[in-house]
Amino acid sequence: MADRRYGFETLSLHAGQIPDAATGARAVPLYQTTSFVFDSAEHAASLFNLQTFGNVYTRLSNPTTAVFEERMAALENGRAALATASGQAAEMTAILTLCQAGDHIVSSSTLYGGTHTLLAVNLAKLGIETTFVDPAEPENFARAVRPNSKLFYAETLGNPLINIIDIQAIADIAHAHHVPLMIDNTVPSPYLCRPFEWGADIVVHSATKYIGGHGTSMGGAIIESGRFPWGDDAVREKFAGMHEPSRGYHGVRFFETFGDFAYTMRARMEILRTFGATLAPFNAWMLIQGMETLPLRMDRHCANALAVAKALQDDPRVAWVNYPGLPGDRYHALAQRYLPRGASGLLNFGIRPGASGNARAAGEKFIEAASFMSHLANIGDAKTLIIHPASTTHRQMSDAEQLQAGVTPDMIRMSVGLETLDDILWDIDQALAAAQQL
Amino acid sequence: MIDDIPGLRRILRGHKVIAVVGLSADWFRPSYFAAKYMQQHGYRIIPVNPRYSGQGDNTILGQRCYASLRDVPEPVDMVDVFRRSEDVLPIAQEAVAIGAKVLWQQLGVHNPQAVQVAEAAGLACVVDRCVKIEHARLFGGLGWVGVNTRVISAKRPL
Asked: Are A259 and B148 within 8 A, CB to CB?
């Protein structure tokens, strides 16, 4: 008989953890330890050779972190996952597993500012070049491909433009060129969208956001689908490092040895092990507490955000609203396809200035006038968050780069939280009123 | 064919003598990884590979290597096959002849005819799975490297 395929809510609570073998503890134990003893010299040798599974040192793996990893893999319906210290660390680790000096990446231009900087500045310094393309036209990815291209990169729901990409179309182009598609799925979380179901090959997350949901703990994750054909001839040529004896890990041939989770093992043993951006077990434990309620929270984030978007749309003090859940939004059709359960909690709007005519000043005043909506540089908290991207998250970009990423001076970004909806609407109303009086 | 968690658990719990056909003596080959792992987890490994039988000290992983299953002088519970799919049928016939209870074709190996022959003789069959990965998935270990084991349970592992 076929094994039961459990639902998302069940996986959010159970995946990756069965009661502790030693104690019977039902909750996930926190293994706050750096190291693990070997049973014998032979056991140690087998662990180092990856001939047996086990824990050596928390920089590589830890039983608490492993629960977080397996649960992320289960929620994304992937084969395996690797935890990292942050979302940025997830991107860096995920990319360095496949790219080296002389390689090329084709990326969507509509990215979180930190990701843009990673690709445009930090990885460029290491000799990995990125071409940024407008993802609204998936063919732009094909036009930018070069013989040394190793990766396509995009965000499911672009931050801060709140645009939705056509994952399936971009995945098809990636595969025609024998490269994997890596998707940052932070904003929808796997509850609203699972990119593997549309052909993506690798998913990265900032777990700091909705996965944790409490705004207490940094964390990131890399998940692989297990379906990218590393063994096909044309792919094999491009990614010799998946097949040749590893210089970074004493001769292991990752694909031959680990098959459909070879990429995750390589990321762990070649990159995480040496670059060291490991998730702390305590943070893994905190993120696990959040994951248990992810489906409940996402439903409410979506409902509150849609109600807020509708109210803003009807407000004469607001020039425009971007929320893909709104009928009439430029990305509504893609939202219905890729995010049928809701379009997550992020929205943008442009504030219409009062007599002053200064939209930028009106935006700053709105943020200052908010009562409980928090002015900070995060998204996906249980609390409602607001920010002015042009002067904060995207300030490292030039004006032209800001516009390419969709950041205008009048833009307010909201991450709609779980407070009483009427209270959120009230706080927006009184802050808009204050902004008009400039 | 056995493909569900209870079925795979039953096979791995009840069959402790494994003849590994196509076992390599090179430490970095998957067959060596898998056999060494199983040996460390309490299984008796019997190497079967004409390439090494009669060569050097005639052993892999400290065990005498045989040229074929028919040469193995003791009862075999499971025949674990690290060979190309098209080469499995005669191995299945030998597995039947020596009275093995399980024919396990490794990851990437699946010969439907071999399954037919083995099942007709009452052998349980597993295809396209790694014995080491399944053991670590169902009895612990694989989850430590972040693999989605799909094991959901409120019982302590035994």
From this structure: no
